Amino acid sequence: MPANQSRSRTRDRNNVLNRPEFMSLNQPIRTNTSAARRPMKHQQSQHQPAEQEQDGRRESTKLPEEDCMQLNPSFKGIAINSLLAIDICMSKRLGVCAHTTSSWGNIRSMVNLLAFTGHGIPWICGTLVCLTRSNTLAGQEVLINLMLALVLDVMTVAGVQKLVKRKGPWEMNPSFLDYLAMDVYSFPAAHASRAAMVSKFLLAHLVLAVPLRILLVMWAFLVGMSRILLGRHHLSDVGCGFALGFLHYSLVEMVWLPSSTCQTLISIGTLSWSNFY
Prior knowledge:
Elements: H1 2-14, H2 23-26, H3 31-61, H4 75-94, H5 108-116, H6 120-133, H7 137-164, H8 176-180, H9 190-205, H10 210-229, H11 235-254, H12 259-270
Helix pairs in contact: 5-10, 6-7, 7-9, 7-11, 9-10, 9-11, 10-11
């Protein structure tokens, strides 16, 4: 027995695989580590869809940029937003004739009549009637240029309103005449623009007494205010309308049509070709 044991020991020593550096080759493959790693991978694959779902929920619950509060707003943005808030608040408070049940609802009809004096349709129709009955060259020249200013005012205001598309403080539906004059939106105020342009035009080209001149200026101001009282326009709409009316007057003065051009236009309009010969 001792001899057999000594022989087995010598064999183990002579076996190369029994050396320490080759001991790992004789050991069986450990499946515990692989089995432990596989569940980890499976768990990771299960966690990834859950994390993706959580990220999707977070993105869906995020508010749009315009609803989020800016932590560092600029001074310009703060000033503009503050002015817009004041404009909306003051315009709603001044809309005392917006409805018959408003605080000044009993004078709503009078305010509507005052606002109607600044509408585009009556001014265009009245200018055409005066033009057909005018016999002087100077009067026809003034009326043709006034018609040009009215058409310019209607087209410009309608274009700006179509671009801006601002609603009034009380969001009332426009009337049939407003649709005809393309005065559907709030900014800028067409009545205020027209009143400022017409008053400036008449003050420059008609000889009026001082009381009439004062009344004409007051009329233009009251027409603009009537639209605020009716809840149709904001304060900023009327202010920009006044500025736009003065701009229209300046443009018409720059491109003033002389008497000969006006007579040519009248001849074309009345189909009277005798002036061309």
